[in-house]
Amino acid sequence: MGADSRPDKRLVVAGHGPAAHRLVEAVRERDAAGTWTITVIGEEPRTAYDRVALTTHLEGADLAYPVHDGAVTVRTGERVTGIDRADRTVATSAGRAVPYDALVLATGSSPFVPPVEGADLPGVFVYRTIDDLDAIRAYARGRATGAVVGGGLLGLEAARAIQGLGLRSGVVEVAPWLMPRQLDEGGGAMLRRHIEALGMAVHAGTPMRALEAGEDGSVRRLVLADGTFLDAEVVVFSAGIRPRDELARGCGLPVGERGGIVVDASCRTEDPAVFAIGECAQVGGMVYGLVGPCFSMAEVVADRLLSPASTAVFEGADMSTKLKLMGVDVASFGDPFAGTDQGALGVTYTDPVAGVYKRLVVSDDARTLLGGVLVGDAESYGTLRAHVGGGLPGAPEQMLFGGTEAAGGDLPGATVICSCNNVTAEGIRCAVAECSLTDVAGVKDRTRAGTSCGSCVPLVKRILDAELTAAGIEVSTAICEHFDYSRAELFDIVRAGRVASFTQLVQEHGTGRGCDICKPAVASILASLGNGHILEGEQAALQDTNDHFLANLQKNGTYSVVPRVPGGEITPERLIVIGEVARDFGLYTKITGGQRIDLFGARVEQLPEIWRRLVEAGFESGHAYGKALRTVKSCVGSTWCRYGVQDSAAMAIRLEMRYRGLRAPHKLKSAVSGCARECAEAQSKDFGVIATENGWNLYLAGNGGMRPRHADLFATDLTDDELITCIDRFLMFYIRTADRLQRTASWLESLDGGLDYLREVIVDDRLGICADLDEAMARHVASYSDEWRDTLEDPERLRRFVSFVNAPQTPDPSIAFEVERDQIKPLPLEVKR
């Protein structure tokens, strides 16, 4: 580039975190004339990366943002040490003096470490950077206990990370409940139940007094103000942040009373050549710690740098957030703390059994949504957040349960859909129209909506679908952004192409590494097609939580064991074995609604020995943990009952033994009643059978639960073989064509033509696939093998059944019980005295 064409403006950015990266991206995208040369100086030894997903670094995720183009100079491992505002230069740790025409301070924040005794002991860390995580991982090897100080967003992520390293983990929060900035007391209490159910101790409302060292001088336990303590060989502080404003202080720029570089609405300091963005900046008396506001500041500064006439200002930010913490959906939107003194009303729903808490805050006339909290079920988050400050489209209780789910086309244009990137509904609609976008990936690329935390993606898709439908364009049914196919299409690809693994599927037919939507869905498909044991090789990493240990996780970190009892029929000998196992391992026993016996309170390392005894007695897995057939319930039928007209128990056993282990998009339940009195409640099941004088009536697509549905009568007076054939084809057609996690009830309702169409497909063979469905079921029946028997015969699979990876035979000491009604029940996880 010749001297005459050299740009005459120099932009220096101090810091290279997410906000700095967004600023540079925005300037480069809009600076077509090449007005600015850009130098970025970051003290970390790597370029900018996604801090929102920091914990996934321990799982091998690549967090790096795309590298800036060659017009940007990035100096890593170097920091700005001083600013000369008169000469407009910055000094760096490498001894450089770098001139600037505009300087943007994006130095972020540092973790707050309370001034407590022992905070400098070996084994004490903060949780802020990739280097921090690498140091924690290295130090944790060979240690068994850990604790995190701070129960906010990042603190809970840190606790999850420590537990993932094989340490027994606890959380200490000075506030009375977890996530006090986002959740109300009820939401915090419900989140605590979920966290403790994962075997993690939670201590809230009690300040920490000190950290104590062990004999080797490193940290050994954490002492609380009330004298109780928590064993911890690794302690992580994640108790808040402090703005990195030392550069501003050093050159005389104003900072806030509690820290933060003071800037105006244009993010400019009192020096017109110096800006500040992100967590180091104080705008309107507030420091923002979420990625969305930081990105918005970067956009404002980019506009100001490129246009002297720009009026862009930072107008505050939507602090709504939705995330999945340790498998628990948590969301907060609007003002969840608005009280009666503001004329607000609260509408609250709590289901302690399901672990769900929902609260809406509405105006005194119940017409305007002010805010809310969702824990355990955040499906309605997108719609609710979109209506904050506006009129409710339905009654508050309907909004809580998704009864008035807004279509994408119904949202006002000014509604902020992606708070991380400040993208409105109108912005998405314009991008779809102007750029002829047809998929979510295109919308994300064009608008950045959904590219940060990802919580808005479902709503982005609804808006996209509404726009495409209005334009007469076929709407994509892609399962997620990594595959351009629906679950049904992926099923056919795997089946026809004999795909044997998720890696093969994503390499040949998808992009990226997959996500928590497509991975379990593909795992289910592979299992449905009989592709080996679910804990074999790569498949083990794809499974949902309960499948990891072939057992149901309970609230205190123990597991329940449910052996199969076909049709509820069991011999005295086998009943005695169950009783002896429960007695010898100290388990709680309960007769289930599906006519089985559930054994509660088993520690993870006990599961193989419990199952070894059950398998030796002839029991097999009841699949209570899987998306599979659970039970076929029955009455005693004509064998014993004077009203029975057919042998319902025999038919129930025949059905259960035929479909056992059949993996599906969702769990499956069935029942057989021996007469029209319906004692087995067959009409509330996915497939239910009721005896008649002439054979069997078949009912399909019923379910209980929160949204019960009565099953539809599909066929009457079937013979045994006709009944089996209809059920075979029904199940296989459902498995092939249903969406992920779709029950048979909603699947049938989604079929164009409903029950009549289903009858045409599996009885009249309208699609010509009945022979294929029959063959698929025959393969399943012939290839069935009990998952627990196979596990016990494989030493590699057994290696996963340990409480601590570094102490395989050590039971988790945090699990405790008390006795009630002559049986154990779990105690809450408490600190030891």
Give a description of the structure.
It is a single chain. The protein has 833 residues and is an alpha/beta fold. The protein is built from 24 helices and 38 strands. Strands 3-2-1-7-19 form a 5-stranded parallel beta sheet, with helices on one face. A 5-stranded parallel beta sheet has the order 9-16-10-11-12, covered by helices on one side. A 5-stranded antiparallel beta sheet has the order 21-22-25-24-23. α9 packs across α11 (457-470). It is globular, with a radius of gyration of 30 Å. Mean pLDDT is 87; it is low at 1-6, 403-407 and 829-833.
Name the features:
alpha/beta, five-stranded parallel β-sheet, 24 helices, disordered C terminus, 833 residues, disordered N terminus, single chain, globular
State the strand order across the main sheet. 3-2-1-7-19
Largest pleated sheet: 5 strands, parallel
Shape, please? globular
What structural category do the secondary elements indicate? alpha/beta
* pLDDT averaged over residues: 87
Distance between the termini: 72 Å
Query: What is the gyration radius calculated from CA atoms?
Result: 30 Å
Helix content: 25-40%
Uncertain runs are 1-6, 403-407, 829-833
Roughly what fraction of the amino acids lie in strands?
15-25%
Total E-strand runs: 38
Helix run count: 24
